[in-house]
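User: Second chain of the day. Same drill as before.
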Amino acid sequence: MLSQIGRVTVPPAVLEKLRDGISLNGPEKDIANRIPEFGARLLENIPRLQNVANIVRCQEKHFEAPAFPRIRSRAKTSRSAREFSRC
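Assistant: Same format as last time:
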């Protein structure tokens, strides 16, 4: 469940809207879209979880987009992110 760890930083009202399928306003959408980034930031501070942090960060990315500068091996991370998201 590490893919969802970023949700601990999200205000409860936004989480409730996400859970209930209620439309989000602009700032709420921004917060929801950044959940993987929030989770990655939490994980990258834990020794030996930096690679997992990159996987969490990339989990919602579409890898047809331009290269992501913070990722060293895009192909390896994208495969790992896809596998991680199945869990």
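The chain has a mean pLDDT of 78.

User: Great, on to the next one.
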